[in-house]
Amino acid sequence: MPLRIVTVPCLSDNFAFLAHDPATGATAVVDVPEAEPILAALARAGWQATDVLLTHHHADHVGGLEALQAGLPAPARVTGAAADAHRLPPLDRAVAPDDTVSIGSETGTVIDVSGHTVGHIAYHFPGSEAAFTGDSLMALGCGRLFEGTAPMMWDSLSRLMALPEGTRIFSGHDYLAGNLAFARSVEPGNAAAAARVARSRSGGPESVHVTLGEEMATNPFLRAARAETKTALGMAGRSDAEVFAELRRRKDAF
Hints:
- The chain is an alpha/beta fold.
- The protein has one domain: Ribonuclease Z/Hydroxyacylglutathione hydrolase-like (Metallo-beta-lactamase, Chain A).
- Helix content is about 30%, strand content about 25%.
């Protein structure tokens, strides 16, 4: 039975997620921007948080952890990247890329998605066709390169693009409107991107999170290898990583 996933809007534009295994009752919280909305969502669902999965060290992803733990009947087990352990809250389990994690009976894999930060990880749960990508791959965009390099981030996005196209991408922020405007500036004829945002306006927060296949059809950062994207940027013949770097540079100044 696949995980039941609930999107929890937090702060001004962050998302946390509840991932619940109906077979066992186990529930993971993925990232903790703030505690109150997460505790309220748990109470509405009648679920008990057993685990916390952290993607990276930024305060808008871990800052609510202490208050969340204080509000739970029993502390949840905290998992995060071993490479980031020195700047994450105390971990009960430090994981490396290709390690497995479990939410009840559902097993997932840790993926290195460094770029936004070095040591950033994502969690892929194939049985539920879900990936929690934090600030690496985001809805119609990707994270700024605060610590990593463009080739590093392109490698990370390429690892994510190797997942099955039916995988739903659960990312850490709602930057959809701004990302759409940038995507339209790169590929003004991409009708799929405009149609995607039109659907999201009436679908609530969970409609931000679409399949990898739809991201690949609409997200300019995942289209750096495509001939039409290179031509649109005047970069025909340049490497995929170079095109990605130019896209990131343009978005930073957009």
